[in-house]
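Progress note, sequence design subtask.
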């Protein structure tokens, strides 16, 4: 996108992907006593981001 920095696009893409993963974790239906967890982890060099989403 013109005028948008690479960093800003990566932040937006990360937010979009994380939102989709979370929606997929809760979409099948909420069951009492079950939840989902998000665990983000950034690389020490700032060049990597790992996002784990799990349902329990």
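Output:
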């Amino acid at each position: 996108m013109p005028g948008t920095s690479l960093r800003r696009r990566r932040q937006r893409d990360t937010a979009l992907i994380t939102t989709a993963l979370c929606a997929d974790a809760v979409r099948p239906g909420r069951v009492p006593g079950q939840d989902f967890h998000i665990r983000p982890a950034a690389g020490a060099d700032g060049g990597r981001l790992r996002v784990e989403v799990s349902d329990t």
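The helical segments are 6-26. Work on this subtask will continue into the next period as scheduled.
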